[in-house]
Specification:
The chain is α/β, with parallel strands linked by helices and 315 residues long. Helices cover 36% and strands 21% of the residues. The protein contains ten helices and nine strands. Helix 6 runs antiparallel to helix 9. The radius of gyration is 21 Å and the shape is globular. The structure holds guanosine-5'-triphosphate (GTP). The site of guanosine-5'-triphosphate has 22 residues, from helix 1. Guanosine-5'-triphosphate binds next to helix 1. InterPro entries: G_ERA_dom, GTP-bd, GTPase_Era-like, KH_dom-like_a/b, KH_dom_type_2, KH_sf_prok-type, P-loop_NTPase, Small_GTP-bd. It comes from Oerskovia enterophila. It is found in: Cytoplasm; Cell membrane.
């Protein structure tokens, strides 16, 4: 069947959104579907702060993935804002993928989300929900079967799909299932475009990822990263030869306490230098140019609880 075939199914397009408790594998799955690193994964809970879209292009469909922060019980003002953001997103998408990791029993966090989704499904225009059992590679067949049954009991899902983003198991099947729920429609984004996030947000995410690598405790919730400026350095680069300019990228890392600042910076600044080197590699790949990365660590006391600070930091 060709695209010009009158019997060919019409093109579909729309939005899918991933929800699930922190660390459920939402970002990794988004990346596996889109095939490029657009959302950060740091191995720590609640690191995805921004709604990042990846786009799956197919001849018959365009699937736009909205990767949200985990829907969780709010403990702080930041938590409440994140939940509002999630609910707003959920009401607007065409299909929701509820991620539940196969290597963890269905717990209170999952039940909380299931209850929220059940509420949403009672609405006038209920959004279909597909349950996705992630990290299938981490468990044996028997455990997976038991888990699928437990997930089935948890709510009224349109489909239940086990996947592994790491070995690719059933990732295509999931894509198929999500596309099935999209309405007929034209391409919403021109071909080839993988994300519509502003570059600055992606640069901030790369720095955040590098800064969180290997640090335990409170830090994931207490670190906000804001890109101050991205400027081509004067006199660098040569349009005639196609040599890209050197970019000066200035980034602020906000923590809540002096002790956290010390953790980020490390002894004699060694850790921050390492963070800079790691983040720079990703930013150069992203922007396709050489980068001079200037990192500044600042203390913004209790920023998670202060509405003014939250606004200033972009939440
Ligand atoms: N073995 C295995 N590990 C996975 C898989 N998917 C994700 N992980 C790991 O699980 C951890 C969490 O994955 P993320 O994709 O960051 O999870 P998330 O749901 O986006 O997390 P938050 O942003 O905190 O809500 C990371 O260490 C991933 O490498 C998978 O299919 N198999």
């Amino acid at each position: 069947m060709t695209q010009n075939d009158p019997a060919a199914p019409e093109h579909k397009s729309g939005f899918a959104c991933f929800v699930g408790r922190p660390n459920a594998g939402k970002s990794t799955l988004t990346n596996a579907l889109v095939g490029q690193k657009v959302a950060i994964t740091s191995g720590r809970p609640q690191t995805t702060r921004h709604t990042i879209r990846g786009i799956v292009h197919r001849p018959d469909a365009q699937l736009i993935l909205v990767d949200t922060p985990g829907l969780h019980r709010p403990r702080t003002l930041l938590g409440e804002r994140l939940n509002d953001l999630v609910r707003e997103t959920l009401a607007q998408v065409d299909v929701i993928a509820f991620c539940l990791p196969a290597d963890q029993k269905v717990g209170p966090g999952d039940k909380y989300i299931a209850a929220q989704l059940a509420d949403l499904m009672k609405g006038r225009r209920p959004t279909p929900v597909v349950a996705v059992v992630t990290k299938a590679d981490l468990v044996d067949r028997e455990t997976l079967t038991k888990h699928l049954l437990a997930v089935d009991q948890l709510g009224e899902w349109q489909d239940i799909v086990p996947v592994s983003a790491v070995d690719g198991f059933q990732v295509e099947v999931l894509e198929q299932v999500l596309v099935k729920h999209l309405p007929k429609g034209p391409e919403l984004y021109p071909g080839g475009e993988l994300t519509d996030e502003p570059e600055a947000v992606m640069v901030a995410e790369l720095v955040r990822e590098a800064a969180l690598e290997g640090v335990r405790d409170e830090l994931p919730h207490s670190l906000a990263v804001v890109v101050d400026e991205i400027l081509p350095r004067e006199g660098s680069g040569n349009p005639a030869t196609g040599k890209p300019p050197l970019l000066d990228v200035r980034v602020n890392l906000f923590v809540e306490r002096d002790s956290q600042k010390a953790i980020i910076i490390g002894r004699g600044g060694s850790r921050l230098r390492h963070v800079g080197t790691e983040a720079r590699k990703g930013i150069e790949a992203l922007l396709g140019a050489r980068v001079y990365l200037d990192l500044h660590v600042k203390v913004a006391k209790d920023w998670q609880r202060d509405p003014k600070q939250l606004r200033r930091l972009g939440f």
